[in-house]
Amino acid sequence: MVDTARLRHVRALVLDVDGVLTDGRLYYSPTGEIFQSFHVHDGQGIKMAQAAGLIVAALSARRSAAVEHRLGELGLAAIVQGRHDKSRALDELEARFGFADKELAAVGDDLGDLPVLARACFSAAVADAHPSCRAQAHYVTRCAGGRGAVREVIDLLLAAREGRDTNAP
Ligand SMILES: [Mg+2]
After folding, report:
1. Range of the domain at 153
2. How many structural domains does the chain have?
3. Is residue 19 within 8 Å of residue 63, measured between CB atoms?
């Protein structure tokens, strides 16, 4: 069951990138170039969330030009990369955009996300997240990372805002 009351407080959505917006795989070319894939359903969901007035930001420990490109294309409010201190980076996002933990939804898949998930009013782990992440989150998505998990969370957030049943299949 989804706690609709938590969803209704959300004003900002902070997303991990690797394993959440991607399936976590890094494809290396012989010259060391890295390729990642993003799901169009997640992209559409991010646009819907933004249209509904949600602040959507990405917070990643790694740095990737492909991530900058894709998320820039989607117009995210902030694309924060190269930050292992995610809780401090979250403090900065909150100060910059004027939201609080109690208005935050966060999606993660691994240990580095736990400090952010612990602070969020609504925390989600993707279906194939590390067990530590799944154990801590308020919600575990049906979809895997990079395969619509972010869209699933956004659908829940928007349904709760509109007063629709978030526990419908
Ligand atoms: Mg990750």
Report:
1. 4-161
2. 1
3. no
